[in-house]
Amino acid sequence: MPLPPLLGLHHVTAMASDVQATYQLMTQVLGLRLIKQTVNQDQLDTYHFYFTDDVGTPGTDLTFFFFPHQKSAVRGTNLIAKISFRVPNDDALLQWADRLAASGIESSRVTQFGDAGLEFNDADAQVYQLISDRYETSPARSQPWTHSSVPLDMAIKGLGPITINVINADRLAFVLTDMLGCHLLATDGSKQLFALGIGGHSQQVILATKPEPLTQAGFGMVHHVAFITEDLTSLQQWTTALAKFNLPHSGIVNRFYFQSDYFRPGPQLLFEIATKGPGFFQDEPEDTAGQHLILPPFLTSQREQILANLPTFEEGDVK
């Protein structure tokens, strides 16, 4: 029986050094909604913040861990090297260049497999790219944050292609095509463009061959990338398949807002397959989601201890 198709990018999780600065960049500059304040379920003294569109649509999530006492990453190879967001068209990129400059952020125009983009870094040297989605034919799935100061005609639509630097592209290409169901769309020198489904920007992965020293983990880099599967039944099928592929994997993990299975497709790289739901509004109202720290039910008894070990975050700054 064929595996259920992976539907695109679910979320990207990165590591950052400063919770307040990250909040300001994501919400006040990029116009994303902080839809969930919670903690890393595997390290309870670490915030886990989810930034999404207005309703937490899968494929719009950029999430962050803020590990205490973590060092800065030393970027090299075997690294998810670039996070990208889709914006409506080329004109939006011009508007974004002005908006970023007004916030003191330098950006540069780039072209990637024929698509115009705008690249910039945050204070941790994390690399971002805004990519023009003008040729995208699939219907828009996201709903821009209603309280964003970003005009609708330039608002971020969701995640775009992720770029992964690798020593050996052949191994990871095999995982993408023969295991995950991607197909090769294009090659440009040392870069290969793979896609799921119809191949829109929200379904794309770029492999870049980089014969460099391995990345040393730290803040300013991506922790993992997740792909969408429809529901728990389809995730269970993927869990069975990962075992047959002899890929070490976590087994199904209940993240409360979705369920997941994690696996390593290569050294230092972490992939996740995650269900669409149940979503972010089962434990707080939609209109006030993200304004306070929320813990999943299995952690609520530890709330006071968890709060005592978390760094300061000004909840009053949350809109």
UniProtKB/TrEMBL annotation:
The keyword Oxidoreductase applies. It comes from the Bacteria. Signal peptide: none annotated. Residues 8-133, 158-276 form the VOC domain. Keywords: Dioxygenase, Oxidoreductase. Pfam families: Glyoxalase. One of its GO terms (molecular function) is dioxygenase activity. InterPro entries: Extradiol_RC_dioxygenase, Glyas_Bleomycin-R_OHBP_Dase, Glyas_Fos-R_dOase_dom, VOC_core. This is Glyoxalase bleomycin resistance protein dioxygenase.
